[in-house]
Amino acid sequence: MDNLELLSEYSLFLREKKEEGKKVVAFISHDNIPEELLDAAGFVPLRLMFAGNDELMDASHDYLSPSTCAFAQSCIGLFSIKPSHYRFLDIIDYFIISNHCVSDICASEIISKYFNIPRLNFYISYTKNDNSGKYFKLELLDFKDQLEKISGIKIKNEDLKESIRNYNNFKKKIFEFSNLNIIGSEKLRVLQRAMLYGPPFLPELESHIQMFKENQVQKTDNLKGILITGGSIFLNDFLIDLIEEAGGNVIFFDTWVGYSYYSQIFEDNIIDSIENPLDLLVNRFKNNIYDDHSVPNFLENKISQIELVYQEYFKKTGRKLGIINHIIKFCDHISLMSSHLKNRLQQKGISVLNLERDYSKANRGQLSTRIEAFLEMM
Ligand code: SF4
């Protein structure tokens, strides 16, 4: 199924939800947004995770300078592009303004202001310590309050726990799926769809797992294993094709669309043992230490995590894993640490390619050459 089919199928899904009386709340796809609170309040979370071509990027330039990151530009472009394949964006009821980074907050404010979508605020601390945990809880309480005011219903603790349980089971299934030995583009395609639809995608996810388990004949042994870290590969992006055309296979997506999402899970006994469900969400925020929003130990945590995946892959296959650090142009969060990340991993004998790019098609040839050279060198 190509993306146009996916978009029209998703549009239908959202319209059905609207007919059931639900409201749609959109946000820019990073992490730490409590989808469970939205779900428990009867809203449908809509993750903006569409970016990867220059049309969307260029359609934002009336609003924000081209020196903004290509992903944030594309999020604005989704609303301003004409003609649009994203007509379902017309039915968004609220937009979450959050501060994952400066570009995120600027793009979110522009979308809310110029496309007339009422805003909901949810701010997150950059640091990870006791005080940031307390601050996160205050923001959760405030966010819950905003949702209750607009929906006119009180979010009950048992409903929120139920949503947390549903999302948790769903993420565990994605985790299981992510461990299958299948070609990276196929894995990404299912991951993207899963994150877009959320738990309603669970039955389809289970049938994908079943199907891939029964037909594990995809030959990946002749391809070079890749872990992709840094910026996500969003819906529409051709980067995964370039990697596969060059003879690589992404076996681990260490990105927001990937491990950062499905690794945020609880053991069942923790869900039962913590009475206040907001405390569960605070716990998850505190444990999300591999996130680029996690100061001061982001670099150390990231290195140890990548090293672990590298060692496991080596033990299992006897082969080395290459690391592509995907830097979306003008993304300070990822680019700031990129040379340190590369140096530190290379000191451990792990090959790293810092691949900085925007979504311009004109760069396709140059990107291909760099990826091919990297795989050759591996
Ligand atoms: S600058 Fe980086 S973290 Fe911020 S919106 Fe762009 S890709 Fe996301």
Describe the 3D structure.
The protein is an alpha/beta fold and 378 residues long. The chain folds into 2 domains: 3-156, Rossmann fold, CATH 3.40.50.11890; 164-377, Rossmann fold (3-Layer(aba) Sandwich). It is built from 16 helices and 8 strands. It has helices at 3-19, 35-40, 54-58, 70-80, 102-114, 130-151, 157-178, 184-197, 202-214, 239-245, 259-262, 268-273, 277-287, 298-317, 332-347, 364-377; strands spanning 23-28, 43-48, 94-98, 119-122, 224-230, 248-254, 322-328, 352-357. The strands form 2 sheets. Strands 2-1-3-4 form a 4-stranded parallel β-sheet, sandwiched between helices. Strands 6-5-7-8 form a 4-stranded parallel β-sheet, with helices on both faces. α10 links the parallel β5 and β6 (248-254). α14 (298-317) packs across α15 (332-347). The longest helix has 22 residues, at 130-151. The two termini are 33 Å apart. The model has no long low-confidence stretch (mean pLDDT 94). Bound molecules: iron/sulfur cluster.
